[in-house]
Every structure is written in C-alpha cells, then in structure tokens.
C-alpha cells in the first residue's frame, strides 16, 4: 500500500471541523472524513457525523461497526480539548481508514490540526482555499 504523504482539505471542511469541536468543547468531537485518494495524496471534501457516537471527556467513542461501507471514507478526525495534538495510544488503537486527523484547542488556525498515516507518522496538510 502506497504511503499517504499529503492531505488536502477544503477550507470549508476544516471550518466545519473547528465549529463542531468548539460546540462540543470541553468534550471531544469525532467526525468521519470523506474524500478521494489519488496515489500518495488524499483530498478531504466532506464530513459525516457518525451514527451513535458518544462524546465524552476522554476518547470520543464510536461504534465502528455502524459506519457505512463506503470507499470514500478516508478516516476520522477528533478533537483534543487539552490542545495537545499528539496521538494517544487509545487514538492509535482506534485508527480507522487511511488517515487520522486531530484538532487541538483553540481550533482556530492551520496550526491547530495534524494528520497521521496508519504508521503513526505525521503527514503534511494543505488547506485549499476556494
Ligand atoms: Zn485523541
């Protein structure tokens, strides 16, 4: 499997993630990332609110078996109200799809989001303003 090296994300998708994270603060939000993969690039174009997600003060749990079989699902994004954007061991164990994104408080700028591939390596994020 080719390693993902760049994640492109539409500005409005990023803004929607920040809005959700702010609304649920100090709890965590969790959303499903949808988009397309082209060789080593993943382009995130929209979000799904996962069914039956429970938003907690720890990891936002998600019944993974409830997710639709959908090849446009690229992974998950969740928020870290602490502002620390490192992936915890719980996060790594709950890796789903091709990438994992984490947004950290205060959920304002491109500095507040990180992406990891399935090897736990940080990957570059490019925001598309359009
Ligand atoms: Zn986490």
Measure the end-to-end span: 31 Å
Q: Biggest sheet, open or closed, and with what strands and sense?
A: 7 strands, mixed, barrel
Strand order of the largest sheet: 1-3-2-4-5-6-7
Bound molecules: zinc ion
CATH fold assignment: Cytidine Deaminase, domain 2
CATH superfamily: Cytidine Deaminase, domain 2
Shape from CA axes? globular
Task: Indicate the radius of gyration in whole angstroms.
Answer: 13 Å
CATH class: Alpha Beta
Number of E strands: 7
Mean pLDDT equals: 89
The number of helices is 2
Count of folded domains: 1
What is the SS-derived class?
mainly beta
Beta fraction of the residues? 35-45%
In words, what does this structure look like?
- With 130 residues, the chain is mainly beta.
- The chain has a single domain (6-128), classed as 3-Layer(aba) Sandwich (Cytidine Deaminase, domain 2).
- The chain is 15% helix and 37% strand.
- It has helices spanning 11-24, 89-93; strands at residues 6-10, 30-38, 41-48, 73-80, 99-104, 113-117, 122-128.
- β5 (99-104) and β6 (113-117) form a beta hairpin.
- The radius of gyration is 13 Å and the shape is globular.
- The structure holds zinc ion.
- Zinc ion (ZN) binds at residues 59, 78, 80, 88, 91, 102.
